[in-house]
Structure formats: structure tokens, C-alpha cells
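Our consortium's second objective concerns turning raw sequence data into structural hypotheses that experimental partners can test. To show how far this objective has progressed, the report includes one record in full. It was chosen at random from the queue rather than selected for favorable results. The single chain below, 259 residues long, was entered without modification.
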Amino acid sequence: MQRNMYDTDVTVWSPQGRLLQVEYAGEAVKQGSACLGLTSKTHVVLAALKRSPHELASFQKKLLKIDDHIAVGIAGLNADARSLAKYMRTECLNHKYVYGSPMQGSRLVTDVADKHQRCTQMYVRRPYGVGMLMGVVDGTGPHLYETEPSGAFHEYVAMAIGARAQSAKTYLEKFMAEFPEADSDAMIKHSLKALSGCVQTDKQLEASNTCVAVIGPDQKLVMIEDAALQPYLDAIELEGDMPTNDAGGAGDDGDAMAT
């Protein structure tokens, strides 16, 4: 039987037990420009490549502030990410108003994953076409979570998503043992080195197309981009150890709606 007989509705199962529209939403995540996150014993660092839809347009935001102790990196449809980020901010504000304390990351990521999952059981709504890396430092320590369009979520020491993310994953796996004891500056350098392998072959990592977010136990969320990021790029260029992009292919052009 034809594949397109089972992908007209998100609630229709294929004979292989697959929900094809959910898988298509996952493809939108793979087409988005790369973002990654890594954790130490004290800090969480997120880094992302910003994409411009046109030469005359500004770069789209890839790292979004949710609260003073929470940030998310996105890969996929920017509009879907904005909608989910608005929901997450509202949940954090409501929790702070009711309980007088910041919301724990594990509770928020569960709520967001449930919101993803509900769209896979209702034919009136399509799945969210965005994947998120959520970095949080709360009373239980630093955490890095990934959410998927299917409603699944996972916690990681380090993770990368988006186009050509395999190169960043290889770097993160290689240096993962150094992360727990690293300070924030070392973590930022590791994130930029990993991200450099995700850049298209005809482009390079620059302060204009890169952004970094840092969260610590006694440090509110800090976004580092543009001129503030240039010293770190100069430092990693001197140190070397820059990974090469062996993945190529998928996501080089991407969808105009994907970020």
C-alpha cells in the first residue's frame, strides 16, 4: 500500500505502527539550524547558529529566555517555538505567583512534552514542528532537557539538534569527561568548538550568526552575542581543535520557515 494513504491525518496509524505526520514534524527539526547544550556541575550553556531567511533580513532568534533560570534553544519552525515559549513563560509566572518560588525544570519540561503529545492524538491540530533544548539551573542543580514533536523528552549531559548536528555530537562525546569540572568560560569555548562543525561549508562561525546563553547557580541567565562573543571566537581559533563538518547534506538550504 502507498505511504501517502497513512499520512493524511496525525491520528492514522500505518501498518508498521508509525504516525507519519509526527515523523514529518521530526524532519522539520532536522532542517532547522543547529543548536546545542552542555552541562557542568554548576552551569548550563546553550549555543546556537542563527539563520537569516534572506540577505536583506536580520538573523532570527534561536535562544529564548523563559525565566531568569531557564532558556531554550530551538530547531525547526520559528512560529511554533514562539507559541511554546509563550506558554512556558506563562507557566513560570503562574508558578512564581502561586508558590513564591521559581519553577523546577523537570515540571516545566513535562508540561511542554504533554502539550506536544496532545497534538499527536487530535486530528484538529498538527504536531509542533520544533525541537527544543531547555537549559535550567534550579534547586536540584543544572539540567539539560530535549523535547521532541512526538511528546518524548530526555535529559542529557550534552546534546545537539538540527542540521548537521552529528558533527557537534561527535565533539561533545569526545570531550564529555571534561565538562563536569569546567568553568563557564571553558564551557562556552567547548560549545563554540562543537557548533563550528555544524556550519555550512561555504560559511564560517561568526559573532553575527552565533549566540550563547549561560546559566549558573548564582548567575541569572546571560545572553552572549555579537561583539561580546568575539573574544571567545578569537580564543578558540588560537586553540584549534575545531571539528570539521563531515555530515553535509541535510539542512544546507532548509525550509524558509525553519530556523
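The partners drew two points from this record. The longest strand covers residues 130-138. The mean pLDDT is 88. Both points have been shared with the crystallography group to help prioritize constructs.
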